[in-house]
Specification:
single chain, alpha+beta, 109 residues, globular
Amino acid sequence: MSFEEFLRFEGEMDVRYELYQGKLVAMAPPHGRHARIAQSVGNLLDRRSSDPDRCMAYQGAGLVISESDATYLVPDVIFACTPPDRRGLMHSAAIIVEILSPSTALNEF
């Protein structure tokens, strides 16, 4: 699947998707402890920001790794000093946080 096809893809309403080297990957939504940890990390990064009007934490935002390699990931927290583009996509990040669980610890991306 190309990056542009991914942007047009609607999928199932309750499922989030990533695109890894052209392959569609369904993601389980964060629940319970995982979601609380992500929220705590995002809050901590926001409180420590040296420029809170420009640099902030985003949860559940997608990060375009490479349009040409068709890779778009959704880390748990992105801390960025540039806002999302007009489509709501992030293209850069100062800090990327992925909270690992037993089911995701072996993922290589």
